[in-house]
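Dear colleague,

Following up on Tuesday's group meeting, I ran the structure prediction for the two-component complex that the binding team flagged. I've pasted the input sequences exactly as they went in, so you can double-check that nothing got truncated or mislabelled along the way. The structure tokens for the whole assembly follow below. Feel free to forward this to whoever is handling the docking comparison.

Inputs:
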Amino acid sequence: MQHPTKTPLSDALRRLVGRPVADIDTPALVVDLDAIQRNLGRMAEFARKHNIRWRPHAKMHKSSAIARLQIQAGAVGVCVQKTSEAEAMVAGGVHNVYISNEVTAPAKLARVADLAHAVAAENGQLAIAVDSLEGVRRLADAMNERRRGGAGAVIDVFVEVDVGGGRCGVTPGRAGVQLAHEIRRHPALRFAGLQAYNGKAQHLRTAQERHDAVGIVVQDVLFTRKLIEAEGVPVNLVTGAGTGSLVCEAASGVFGELQAGSFLFMDADYAANERDPAQPQFEHALFIKSQVMSCGVRHAVCDAGHKSHAIDSGLPRVLELPATGALEYFNGGDEHGILRPAGDNQRVPALDDVVWLIPGHCDPTVNLHGFMIGVGGGLEHGKVEKIIRVDARGALT
Amino acid sequence: MQHPTKTPLSDALRRLVGRPVADIDTPALVVDLDAIQRNLGRMAEFARKHNIRWRPHAKMHKSSAIARLQIQAGAVGVCVQKTSEAEAMVAGGVHNVYISNEVTAPAKLARVADLAHAVAAENGQLAIAVDSLEGVRRLADAMNERRRGGAGAVIDVFVEVDVGGGRCGVTPGRAGVQLAHEIRRHPALRFAGLQAYNGKAQHLRTAQERHDAVGIVVQDVLFTRKLIEAEGVPVNLVTGAGTGSLVCEAASGVFGELQAGSFLFMDADYAANERDPAQPQFEHALFIKSQVMSCGVRHAVCDAGHKSHAIDSGLPRVLELPATGALEYFNGGDEHGILRPAGDNQRVPALDDVVWLIPGHCDPTVNLHGFMIGVGGGLEHGKVEKIIRVDARGALT
């Protein structure tokens, strides 16, 4: 396994457990543990009601501890995008892992085969996506090399269909049939179904636009599934969906598994979507605690810039608190944020004021940090309950 | 010291030293060590010619090993933005460090005072910026607390002037005089001069626009310096400048020290500036090695997205190589990049094709990685010479 060599927990972080929130040095990535539990409960209930499995995406939190929490709450396992993320999950005791992405480099596939055997030894199961004949053959070679002619683990293989993302996946139709047949030719591979995810659909602002986009996803999946099943090959599972569109996939009757990950933390971008009435009311659980370190006449400067939070989906929102009133965050570069009063608020923040930023996008924000500080009892008056390691931080390979 | 608990070097990374570039797993952050040496030579020569000190910004590379290379090449030390970055530099044997930013939280200032004493014991010197009376007093309190009434280290203190950045710093004029006097009241503080940096000026595209912007910077500095010196207080040094504008500051006769950092690696954004004829021809030395892992009819997908490189200053450029021809990189999200042929090139990249991405912005890109892979002998046919730790990765506090 190439990844992960764990960053040790510093003494300062260790000492923080049990201390009040006020003692958290800034900037810091803080998760509201109570809000996480509520979001998990809402997701579990939603999945039960729709009789659908959920396999949340761990590319978002990159933490085996959080993955275990999700599995305790009813998730069947987790998704990841990278081999090294899968390695980090398995090293952290998570044994049902789906690499919902193509892995084609032989050196990486050897690691995938190792992982398939490692989780099988724990009664777990590894799965992966493919979108080319060459990819299937290389995967089979790696699994066979690992088995060395004898029996061994079997890996679940999903055929990815490009359902509008324009990224990976085969064109809906016959290409999927060909891949399903090829998978079934190899004893170490098991054809598990279809991977169908349209990332762009997640961020369409109105519920109707997302509904329409997933309508096309469902048509593409049905078309491909029908062709495969017409040849006597059962398609047991269709897996996909994100936090933006999950109500559509859940209601489709076609999807058997939801991969939504961001619901757990809810970022500013997902919160800016018009909520479908059927969607659970997920709440923000991920924050950057920051503090004012310089004051101008009409603006203040806090100590969190885009080395603290990702800005690919926009700048962070500022949590409105009685102490500071409404504030807007402006780009101050890598290490600073510019704060200005917003709405009716006239008060420019003062030196030492604490602000809580809601990141625009959870996934790359978490990836900037080695640890999340888990708080119970609320952001303002709570206590640090635990330090959560971001096991797969920077797990790129 | 809160930071840094070092991430151990993995066996896989250790084994890479001496291996050909082809063996570097993707995506990976790779530095061209030959290009770095050439860029250092150009900067050293430029500084000698203009009889100006250079103190490159280590917020860019976050590596004490690179800082030591820069000091060997003639730099007087390094700048950093955060206390924890300074801690990482000092832990890595760099003893002349300037925190070119305000630090106002008492818990952080206690660490600053510790650092001031730690570097003094090594015949080094710590410096810091201030922009408020309260900040100066808190800094003095922390230094006095560390000294406990006896003698001890002295910290150099620069008054930051807001010269157009609209972020930190005092308004040009009398506020600077007041701060200089306050600094001189405290025996543990030494008034060292003025900090004057306009980040916005760096990225103005034409040389004339940058020249005009720095013209205003120089006026603001001269005005403030004159007021301070009129009261018999010498202003020994004006420090600032970035890679975009350094020729202007060097020619101003007012600046005594250049803080430019990005020249060492040169990102796509700085390269998009019209080059002032007086500016050394710095070359790209920082790359993401990536590989094609999925192919469509008109596009290919590589394994590097914005968890591999920062996109705050735009998407990466693709290095044009004979094997692939000209390519354009499109946003594929956190883990993927979409590649399409550009210009006259008709060839869609094939599975396994290697591409070298030139990041839009060095600083936050380096911060995404635990290590840089140092290559000698060129990107295509060279060898891995060393693994360079990003000591201050994620050093936010």
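The first strand of chain B starts at residue 28 and ends at 32.

Cheers,
M.
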